[in-house]
Amino acid sequence: MEEAFLLNQTSIVTYFRLSGLSVNQKVQMAVFSMFLIFYVLTLIGNILIVITIIYDCRLHTPMYFFLSNLSFIDVCHSTVTVPKMLRDTWSAEKLISFDGCVTQMFFLHLFACTEIFLLTVMAYDRYVAICKPLRYMTVMNWKVCVLLAVALWTGGATHSIALTSLTIKLPYCGPDAIDNFFCDVPQVIKLACTDTRLIEILIVSNSGLISVVCFVVLVISYAVILVTLRQQISEGRRKALSTCAAHLTVVTLFLGHCIFIYSRPSTSLPEDKVVSVFFTAVTPLLNPIIYTLRNEEMKNALNKVMRRNEKKEGKFKSIGH
């Protein structure tokens, strides 16, 4: 009895082995270069958006308030997985501690779920702005915006705590290989030394249901917006369509991954890694591109911030001389 207990104690998994994206050294170097560029551009683009919205008073509106939240989430979401993956490309053994794996899963689901709720709120904001313009500032006042922000972060935290708690309560005694470049709940629970069918059902009914329901709500919202836009003047319609097209692009890319991964049992597919790359590295980079290149207000505000920095640099140079 004592020997069996000692055996169980020594067989508990303390580290997981990540497979990464490739075992080929040349491919890994190419992946490192690509992800490093994506990550740096993600940081620069999203942080620049947040700074621009803070400094430009004309952007102190509900839409840009939520956009600044989206940029902040994208920076955090990308930081949860990409730096670890970049470091692992130089390591023969891509190890992550059990605690590190749990931490990664918690923050991954915190930021992902919060972003899903945020995209839904942004769709509602556009619906009110386009379909009920006279009531917009009454419905979407600052008190409502702050309450919505608190609610979506609280919802994301609750979702993440629930999933992480279910995962860490399972016994792990081997194997320890995760077929991905980061820890996620579906891959981790497959390694548990117990029947996980009930937990898989809970994951599908939780994460999968949230993704599908939010996606349906978003599609209905934008369908109503498009019907409303048919009755508006051409210039207003063009601007609104541009904004909605940007939102729909982000929604499709982001929620498409969530539905693909979390709306099915925990089985590995060859496409999982490709979808995960878009989820963790590409989508956070696309947000600043979509919301700046397709938005005249953001482009004008960015130019204003750049000119202000150039003037400051000119003053410092003149003082130095």
TrEMBL record:
Give the membrane topology: Multi-pass membrane protein
Give the GO cellular component terms, alphabetically. plasma membrane
Gene3D superfamilies from the UniProt entry: Rhodopsin 7-helix transmembrane proteins
The G-protein coupled receptors family 1 profile domain extends over: 45-291
Principal subcellular localization: membrane
Subcellular location as annotated: Cell membrane; Membrane
Signal peptide from the UniProt entry: none
Q: Which residues cross the membrane?
A: 29-55, 106-124, 144-162, 208-229, 241-262, 274-293
Q: Which UniProt keywords apply?
A: Cell membrane, G-protein coupled receptor, Membrane, Olfaction, Receptor, Sensory transduction, Transducer, Transmembrane, Transmembrane helix
Q: Which domain of life is it from?
A: Eukaryota
Which PANTHER family does the record match to this protein?
OLFACTORY RECEPTOR
> What's this protein's family per the entry?
Belongs to the G-protein coupled receptor 1 family.
| Name of the protein | Olfactory receptor
